[in-house]
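Hello forum,

I keep getting stuck at the same step: I have a sequence, I want structure tokens, and every attempt I make locally crashes halfway through. Rather than fight my setup again tonight, could one of you with a working pipeline run this one for me? It's a single chain of 133 residues.
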Amino acid sequence: MGKREDLRTKPYQRLHVTPLPRMRIMQPYDDSSVTPRLSPNCLSAHSEGSNRLVPSRNDGWREWAWEDKNYWVSDEPISKADFNFTTVLGTVKLFYLRSKTFRLGNIACWVDDDDHKAVTLIGYWEMTYNIGH
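Reply #2:
Ran it on my machine without issues. Output:
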């Protein structure tokens, strides 16, 4: 009875399980690969201290707050601002406001010097409500 009880209550002691290697989800299995520790960061116009989004170069932009939300805005065409940041795996997200009330314009955004890969964000729309994207 003693031997049978051990098999029922402690089955994990009978198994030999090799630890899984640390890998990224889409990476092919490789038990010798080493995935470095990732330390992502988040910068925001809402943040305080070292995570606050502040331009390294600013030509025509200013901070603006509306209902506890902070934005960078410009009233001048062809205004430019540069922001220094680093990425861990290359993910960059930019949130912006769309509105008819505020008569917003468009902005072209790109990373590094790849202005030929610029994405245009359109701020003005005909909807009667303001919404962040």
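The chain has one helix and eight strands. If your local run keeps crashing, start a new thread with the error log.
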